[in-house]
Write a structure and sequence with these properties.
The protein has 176 residues and is of the alpha+beta class. It has one domain: Aminopeptidase (3-Layer(aba) Sandwich). A 7-stranded mixed sheet has the order 1-2-3-4-5-7-6, with helices on both faces. α1 crosses α3.
């Protein structure tokens, strides 16, 4: 049995961009690299996770980033919420997008995702959100099961452009 590490969760700031940028790219690649064409993956990573893009997202007043860290400040996972317009088909009241929730592979199975999601629900409630919604690749069965265990239900489908390779995603929602 793997011992539990006392992770903490905090709001990310602009000063986190230099460390968060490579972490976001790494965890995205870990999650999808085996199921995406290499050129599409590289294109997506190049446009979505450079430091200047992450810095811009961190500075967006409609976005909230939470970091799960080990005692030595090593990032174990992160969550991004977006308080903006939902996709067509989102039905819940006062919806907030759970845009990203990723845990580094070496910390998976240690409760990091659940810890981040719990804090994300709290931030959503504090800011008046009543529904969390997200999209998740239909082939990412581990993530789909994780979200279902945490009360999300599938409410539709959407398409995700991963560097020019179109992917089918479930649209999932949860009242909070």
């Amino acid at each position: 049995m793997t011992p539990q590490i006392p992770f903490t969760v905090r709001l990310a700031t602009l000063t986190d961009a230099p460390v968060l940028s490579p972490f976001t790219a790494r965890t995205f690649r870990e999650a999808f690299g085996a199921n995406a064409p290499p050129d599409a993956m590289e294109s997506y990573l190049a446009q979505s996770f450079p430091e200047e893009v992450v810095r811009r997202e961190l500075g967006d007043p409609a976005a909230v980033f939470l970091l799960a860290e080990m005692p030595d400040a090593t990032i174990a996972g992160y969550l991004k919420l977006f308080f903006g317009d939902p996709l067509p088909g989102v039905r819940g009241t006062n919806p907030v997008k759970l845009w990203r929730l990723y845990t580094a592979s070496e910390f998976q199975g240690r409760g990091v995702g659940t810890l981040l999601l719990t804090h994300g629900v709290g931030v959503t409630r504090e800011r008046g959100g009543q529904t969390l919604w997200l999209t998740v690749n239909t082939g990412n069965t581990g993530a789909v099961r994780f979200y279902e265990r945490h009360g999300f239900t599938q409410t539709g489908f959407t398409t995700f452009d991963l560097g020019g390779a179109l992917q089918t995603d479930f649209l999932m929602e949860r009242e909070i």
